[in-house]
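Review this today:
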Amino acid sequence: MFRRAQRLQAVRGFGIDRVAAAADAPGRAHPDWPVLRMENLDTDLPLPPEAVPVTAENLTSPKSNSWLPFTGDLDLRAAVSEFLVERAGHHFDPEREIVITSGGMEGLLDVVLAVVDPGDEVIVTDPTYAGIVNRVHLAGGIPRFAPFRVVDGEWRLDRDALVAAIGPATRAMLLMSPSMPSGGWFDEQDWRLICDLCCEHELGLIYDSAMERLLFDGRPLLHPLRFEGMVERTVVVGSLSKEHRMIGWRVGWVAGPAATVEDAGWVHVYNTTMPTALSRQAGTAVLRGDQGHVQECVNELGRRRDLLLEGLPGWPFVRPAGGWSMLLDVASLGFEPAEASRLLLEESAIAATGMTGWGDEVAARYVRWVFSAEPRERLATIPERVAGSTLGEAVAARNA
């Protein structure tokens, strides 16, 4: 009999799979409504124009069925370097400072395993993506949570709590902006504090850049590498899965100081051996292609967010600054997330995931509604779906 590894004791499931299975269960069909799939971070938004034709053109090439190069084609790494220099203001050496990975999440795990020892503390936000929390656990690290607070209906980083989270065992911060699943965004003062703390305490910053351009209401992209002292202590992890909607292509990257990237590269090699070969040429073409499609998708995502907020006045949503999802404070209505998720599915045919395990005490109040996979005409049915539902009645009582 195998003994369960200690590193798995704190690892929890997403909850996404359970909600999806319930939504797909035989006999579960709602009498009035098809299920709205708001539990998972899929999208119906179009792919970049280069993605499919370039992939198809290269399906039969030997390069698309090769193990090599283990850390990614040099031309793809060069395309990543070109892509990053415009937004980060720093040129990464494609040969020494960039590794291609099988998606951004593999890249994050590679970096965490390369820099975190058992017992090291890593600061993340609350809420944050459960996959981030659990990758810290898998490395034997300890997540320390710096909460987002709700201020004027939007998320704001609790700066005092961030300062207080740093202790003698803190090794790094692992942050993203806008953040999943909340859509919380760091303004310039937030980033300045984060960067000052990293420099003062000799901390590394692992920056998940996967959603950094998915910003609403004209918010600017603020990159930590533009702050003094951060080039030598920042590792940027990115992917084509969010801004470019290429979820199934599994193209990610790690960019940063050469020594750290080399270590993360060896973790990558001994984990997956290689990045996804079929995606290499498409990834290169998309990164060098016209990026106008990103803003078009941001505009559509913003319209979907606004449709939900305007259609459900009085519901305790927190307005996201960007991203693909928004959170509903079901605790303020008297519900646990799992129970609220069940009621939404059974009564209103809305599949949405509870955020237990996606952070700490803040996340444990919320259910996530993903608006990236459902068109506006289907989202527009939600007010009718929730009218008279258990949660709808709780909202009415709360606002009476």
In short: The chain has a mean pLDDT of 97. Residues 292-311 form the longest helix (20 residues).
